[in-house]
Each structure stands twice: as structure tokens, then as C-alpha cells.
Amino acid sequence: MQNFEYCNRTKIIFGKETEARVGAELAKYAEDNDGTSFRVLLHHSGGSSVRSGLLERVKNSLKSAGFSWVELDGVKPNPRLSKVHEGVALCKKEKLGFILAVGGGSVIDSAKAIAVGALYDGDVWDFYDRKKTAVHALPVATVLTIPAAGSESSISSVITNEAGPWKRPIDAECIRPVFSVMNPELTYSLPAYQTACGVADMLAHIMERYFTKEPHVELTDELCEGAMRVIIRNARRVFSGGEADYNARAELMWAGALAHNNLLSTGRIGDWGSHLIEHELSAVFDIAHGAGLSIVFPAWIKYNIKEDTPRLARFAAKVWGVDGAFYDHEQAALEGVFRMKNFFRSIGLPVSFGDAELDTGKIPEMAERAVKFGPLGNYRKLYAGDVEAILRLAAG
Amino acid sequence: MQNFEYCNRTKIIFGKETEARVGAELAKYAEDNDGTSFRVLLHHSGGSSVRSGLLERVKNSLKSAGFSWVELDGVKPNPRLSKVHEGVALCKKEKLGFILAVGGGSVIDSAKAIAVGALYDGDVWDFYDRKKTAVHALPVATVLTIPAAGSESSISSVITNEAGPWKRPIDAECIRPVFSVMNPELTYSLPAYQTACGVADMLAHIMERYFTKEPHVELTDELCEGAMRVIIRNARRVFSGGEADYNARAELMWAGALAHNNLLSTGRIGDWGSHLIEHELSAVFDIAHGAGLSIVFPAWIKYNIKEDTPRLARFAAKVWGVDGAFYDHEQAALEGVFRMKNFFRSIGLPVSFGDAELDTGKIPEMAERAVKFGPLGNYRKLYAGDVEAILRLAAG
Fold first, then answer.
1. B-side interface with A, Cβ within 8 Å?
2. Measured between alpha carbons, how far is B352 from B296 in angstroms, rounded to an integer?
């Protein structure tokens, strides 16, 4: 087991009708910080949270607690740098001191970027372009509507700069939300495709952490495997008429947060190659992140089939129910990939370029761009040629 | 799934030689708190941490970081109120601003009690006697030497008032350690009995959370079951000549912290009846907490065998490897208890009053005292008669 540090300070407020507590939590936060007074940037997409009445309930809660706010809507999936710039300008002009994101990972990631930019004189893209390291940010809190990105308790933010297009991540403790409100009922009305993309995203967050060459991480392995089984089982429930099954939605929502809060990577480094490859798919085709992952991940495993095959066989056994007594590890591992693809397809996700009607002609260009900052991944270092080979496996 | 709040702010610094970082972490803490300056109460048992040289290394680390301290040693297992009073007086007299506990659960629990008492004008026992609620405390950090109590990242402290004797717990967010240093190497030299007691304690912390009537807690169940399997497997390794097996010791140490940090109770209330019954054993016989638990818990399950038998059978299957296809749930559950007792015995723990040579004549008195604040537990409410019956089952 490798040495590690672990700390997650995000306070989770989980359950039915919890959005009504946002104002009170904000007041508690202010009190715990020497009675700081601030106005809030209320950041959202302007879409479903308005239509569902959620935003109105959040505003009522803020109002009852005596807070005032400025609104910024219009966040899109694969959140854009231009919107972040708008938010930064607004925070500076209106002297806002707190950012409340109401939405899914895109809104939260956008809010985190604004939080960093609001305390910086230059262009916030500097942080995503690795010219600067983020150490200060306005406090961010969230009301989560889409379990997927795990951004509600993570230190990550991923932003797309339209100029490239480049899709780039940052990781910084200062952007971890101070609290997150998670009401599974808010996810009943999610379109099936968005639910499915969220499922792929949270599974991928765990798989990135799970694929490691560190052999002594039993507890972390067990936690990962258990969480993946729970996600798969409860996704099946939701997709078998359980759209409004509170408990199934709750399991997915809570698993989505744990998937990305770094508890599941204690004692080892993860891989993250598939995520970085996927970012190229999203940047070039503007495909949903989860759909990109369901295309890339099975191909990544296939490409690595000779790379610690017993571990891939264990993954197949513990997560996908492949008989652990399978006589050949490689066959077991491939059966696991087969079941994974079946599962993704069964919830309506693409598992190849063909399924998503993506242009395979862009593969060489994407492979080059993916390795801009050097080779990807840790389970096995991937160079441009490897990335191209993985994307070719995903083409079919 | 029930609504819940979850937050654990303790920063974990885990791995080899991490005790050398104590001073630097303390300096970081001071810096994050507006450069607060403080002197430290260095609290320990005066035993193995002195002999092993650990205390010296911790002092060197404090010195290098520019901190000065006052020492208070002499903490005993089942930590005493009289020692807490000493610490409180010392903090007040010397105007100490931070408490560093170097030791196991007893030292940490004592440190937490001192932290509360230092900011209170009356007798700190008021909090344990439920006359007062703890909301303010000096900050506490720990260098853990015995994985067991989980106190290194928990909100709990249990103190014994010799006057009774009464052994009573408090739970308060303000006593959660701000950071904890966990080096598994420090546990190589633990006496086997202390290692075993720690194993029973961490298993018990998970079982208390696991036994619930809430049927929809799949993720939490999987995390609990995985953690229990890891503890059992790695305890076997340590007790099969693996005293200095870093990875086995590391799995136990990390599992011990997770066992008691409340992640494993999200979405449900736990039971805690067995713990409260055990407190009477420790108070009356001054037996180690873990040894008391290995006596009480099997009896508690047996007494509840008709109480949601399928859940007890699942526990037997998932944690103790009892064939899940067992035709009779009750038989499966009893087979689980049998294996649990075998396991405890195999690592040198008592599973009955007889094993530990305890006087069964005290049972009625202990049963009465256990319910002083009302019936115990949630899985099934236990009154004095129930507690007596459980202790009689454990008498054997």
C-alpha cells in the first residue's frame, strides 16, 4: 500500500426535500466563518431546474435565510470558458462572495472555474492550461440534480475552451464544495440518456481508480467493487421501470459522489488514461462525457488485456459476475468486457464510434492532441500510437 | 434509505514514517487558522511510545516546526476521569491551545475529554452525564499507535468515572481530530492481545452500523461487508506470523478508521446495544473493550436470531462465507455466529464470561445499570431483562 493523504471536507446533506435547507446551510456556513456576510452567484443551466420549480424553491430558501443573489444561467454540457468569463466578470463587478451551483456536473464545474477566476487578475484558462496552480477560490456549494460527475464533493473541474476546442481539467482543494445538497427525487425526471451517461461516468470514475499495479489495496478494492455492483444493479432497476424508485435513485446518487471523492483511491494511484482520451471525443464531437466513456473504456481494457490479466479477470468476476473459476484469465477478462458493453448498450449508451455515428477520420488528430502534456495513464503509459490503437478498437 | 448528513473533516496522513510530519502539519493547521499561535499539550500513556522512541521522534518534529509543549502521560486503558481533570487543569494553567494525542483510543478519548473540559468552567463529567452538550473544544490531533477505537477520525470519546465506576460516551463534532497521523509500522510491536482487541473493536463498530431494519442501504451494506472481510482476512495474516507484514497492518489500520467514521452508517441508524452492554463489562471488570465485545456480540446475535433472520443469514454469508444457498436462514445465521466465535478464539479473544474468568454474579446489577438512560439499541429495543438474558447467553 502506498502512503496517502485523505480528507474530504464537503458536508453532504442527503435525502428527500433537502433543497429547502440550502438557505439555512448557507447561514450556518457564514456563522462558522466569523459571520462573514456575502451575496451569492446563483449559477444554473436555465433549463430543467427552472421548469421543475426547483430553482424557485432554492430561491425561497435563500430568501428566508436573508440572502440576496445575482443569477447566471445558460451553462451547457461540456461547460464553456466563455460562460466562465461571464461569471468571473459578474462576481468582480457585483462583489459576490459565494457561488451556489444548482445543476449537474457541468454547472458545478463551471461554478468552480468562476470561483477560481473571481480571485485572479489574469485569464482563468491559465489554470486549465497548467500555467498557474489554483490555491484560492470563492466558496462553492451545490444543489445536485444529476448524479454523474461526482463534482459535488470533488476537487475537479473540467472546462471546454471553444477556441481549440480544448477540454481540460484542474484539481485543486480550494474548489471542493463546502456543502452539497443531494435529493434523489430531483433525478426522477432526468431523461433516460442523461441517467445512463451518469451511470457510465460514475462507473468510469471508479474504474480509473481501480486499475492499478499496486497489489496491496484490499480495502480500497473491496470498496470499489461493492460500489460498482451497486451502481450496475440500481441502474438496471431504474431502467426497468424504476424511474421514480426513490431507493434506486438514492443508491445511484450516493454512489456517484463516493465514486469521485478519492476515498476509493486511497493507497494507490489510479490510471485516468480513458478519461483523458474521452476528453478528446467530447471536445471534437461535443458528445456527452458518459457516452464517450462507454465507447473508450471497453476498448481500453481490450487493449490492455495482456497487462496484469489476473487483475482484469478479477474485475470481471467481482463486478460482472463472471465465474471466478474460469480456467483462463484472459478469457474471463474478455467475458467481463463483453458484459460491460452489453450493460452499457442495455441502458442506451453507445459502445463504439459506429453506435454514436462519430467520424473515425478524426482518430489520428485526437490521438496526437490527447498526449499534448505527455503520455497518458499509469496502469500502462499510453503514447499517441497507443491512443490511436485504442480508438481504432472502439471504432468498430 | 433514510435522509442523512455526512461530513468527516479529519485529514488522514497515512503511511510509513509519517510521524515525522506532525510538526509540519501542525504548522499548516496554524496557518490555515489565520496564523494562530499556540502551545501544545502532548498527551500519551508514558509506556510503549516512550520505549519505542516514537515520542522522541514526535518531539523532534514539533521542535523543528517551532512548537513548544507541556507533557501529560499516564493514560490507562478505559481512560479515567481523574486523568482528564489533570489535563484540563494543565491546559487552563498553562494556557495551552492544542492537544496532540500520541497513542491508541484511550489516549485519544482522554485528549478529547480534556479538549472539551479546557473550555468549560464546570466539571467535564457533566457532558458524559448528559447534563451538557459539547459544542466547543480545543483542537485535537493524533498520532495513532493502536488501530481499534476509530477515535482518530470519530466524534466519540468514552471516559470512565472511577466514582461509579461509570463508563460513558459522548459524541460531538467539536472533538473530531483535525488531523491524524497513521503509520502502520508503529503497530508491529503491539502485543498480540491488543491487536486482537482492536480487531474485535473495529468489527464491532461496523456490526453496530450494519444491524439495521432499514432495508434500502445497498451501498452502505456493500461497504460494510467489504470492510469486515478485509479485517478478518488481514487479522488472520497478522496472527499467522505476519506481525511485521506492512500491508496486512496497513489494511487493519485504515479499516479501523473507516469502521468508525460514519460513512458506513449513511442512510440508516445503527444499533449500538452491544457497545453499551460492553461498557458495563469494562466498567465493572476493567476488561479491555475489544475483549468485552467479543463476549457480548455473539450473544447479542443469538438473542436476536428471530429478529429479521434473513439479514442475519446474509451477514453470515457475506462476511463469514456461509453458503448463501443454506436452506434455512436461522441455521445459516447460527453458523455465522459459530464462525465468528471461532475467529475471535483463534486470535486469542474470550467469547464467554468463562473464557475471561468474569463473575456471572454481577449480571443482574450490570443489566440494571446498562439501561440507566432507557432501553438500548435500535435493531431491537433492549430492556434490563433483555440485557440480562444476553449476558446469560454469554456466560456459558
1. 1-16, 18, 184, 216, 218-219, 222-223, 225-227, 229-230, 233-234, 246-247, 250-251, 254-255, 258, 263, 266-267
2. 8
- Asked whether residue A229 falls in the same domain as residue A323, the answer is yes
Place of cell 490555491: A135
Instruction: Clarify whether residues B239 and B341 are in a common domain.
Output: yes
Which among B12, B234, B247 has CB closest to A6?
B12
Any domain includes B379:
yes
CA-nearest of B391, B193, B205 to B296 is B391
Instruction: For this complex, say whether ipTM is above 0.95.
Output: no
Distance in angstroms (rounded) separating the CA atoms of residues B117 and B136: 9
Give all strands (DSSP E) within A145-270, no chain letters. Answer: 156-161, 166-171, 179-182
Residue A244 lies in a domain: yes
Same domain (yes/no): A286, A233:
yes
- Among B254, B258, B266, most A C-beta atoms within 10 A, so best to mutate, is B254
Edge-first strand listing for the sheet containing A179-182: A69-72, A40-44, A98-103, A140-144, A179-182, A4-14, B4-14, B179-182, B140-144, B98-103, B40-44, B69-72
| Whole-prediction pTM | 0.95
Q: Do A97 and A208 share a domain, yes or no? A: no
From residue A356, give the alpha-carbon distance in Å to each of A160, A280, A349, B103: 21, 15, 9, 57
Domain boundary among A138, A158, A186: A186
Identify residue A161 by its one-letter amino acid code: N
**Distance between CA B295 and CA B281 in Å, rounded?**
10
Q: What is the pLDDT along chain A (396 residues), one digit of tens a residue?
A: 999 999 999 999 999 999 999 999 999 999 988 877 899 999 999 988 999 999 999 999 999 999 999 999 999 988 999 999 999 999 999 999 999 999 999 999 999 999 999 999 999 999 999 999 999 999 999 999 999 999 999 999 999 999 988 889 999 999 999 999 999 999 999 999 999 999 999 999 999 999 988 889 999 999 999 999 999 999 999 999 999 999 999 999 999 999 998 899 999 989 999 999 999 999 899 899 999 999 999 999 999 999 999 999 999 999 999 987 777 999 999 999 999 999 999 999 999 999 999 999 999 999 999 998 899 999 999 999 999 999 999 997
Q: Is B160 found in the same domain as B106?
A: yes
Contact criterion met (CB < 8 Å) for A5 and B16: no
CA-nearest residue to B178 within chain A is A7
Q: What total of structural domains would you count in chain A?
A: 2
In a shared domain, residues B143 and B278: no
Residue A70 belongs to domain spanning: 11-186
Element (H, E) at B81: helix B81-94
B189 touches B277 (CB < 8 A): no
